[in-house]
Amino acid sequence: MKDNNKQTVMMTAEEKAEFEAFQIAKAKRATEEKAKADREMYRKMVDEEIESSIPVLMGISEQIKESKQQVMDNFKTILEMKSDLFKTKIKADQRSHTFTNSEGNKRITLGVYVTDGYRDTVEEGIAIVKEYIQSLAKDEKTKSLVSMVLRLLSRDAKGTLKASRIVQLRKVAQETGDERFLEGVQVIEESYQPAVSKQFVRAEVKGDNGEWKPIPLGMTES
In whole angstroms, what is the distance from residue 167 CA to residue 91 CA? Predict the structure, then answer.
């Protein structure tokens, strides 16, 4: 038989307060220990998942790299044939080539990403242009020209001049016809030293509505 008798413990107010404080501290310790254990379990789960996922992703990356190189190698032969067939030369500065199938519903673009860059002599060219253009700031019309030219000479977040803006600057200089202005622009242009960052392959298919849809080839594409 179960002993259902309950015992009553007599406590003073001070003892009761100490007991309640003990229970609160015990519960707090239990909560902290559980939270610590949960954090440790979380860290282990992250570590385990990373260890199992990285080899998979490295494998995918290697497959993409090999496939891209294979496509590049295959089309290298086609580019050479194109040059022979049509008696044209592949320009060294041509950054991309697009090939479309006979039905006109599939196409592949091969190319390289190029980042703008300049030799240190670019600073002399900029100084010449600024010296000339700032000497013109006499009325509202010329102030507007000065403002436009200075915007074209502004740099991006990486501190680099945009080549497309220098093309615009050349047109402005030609319109003015000023030799000093043109000299400064020429120095800037001669300082241009672009760098090839990486090759790319872009594949597209034409949808039912006639629009080109890219085939996802990267981890961030879907």
Answer: 19
| pLDDT attached to residue 88 | 58
Q: Which of 132, 155, 156 is nearest to 145 (CA)?
A: 132
- 10-residue mean pLDDT series, the chain (222 residues): 63 82 89 93 95 93 88 86 68 73 93 86 92 79 82 87 91 90 94 84 92 84 56
Cβ atoms < 10 Å from Cβ of 199? 13
49 lies in some domain: yes
Last residue of some domain: 34, 66, 90? 90
What is the C-alpha to C-alpha distance for residues 81 and 173, in angstroms, rounded to an integer?
Answer: 41
Question: What domain range includes position 133?
Answer: 122-190
Phi, psi (degrees; rounded to nearest 5) at 121: -65, -10
* Tally of domains within the chain: 2
Tell me what pLDDT residue 90 has. 47
| Residue 142, pLDDT score | 77
The predicted structure's pLDDT at residue 103 = 92
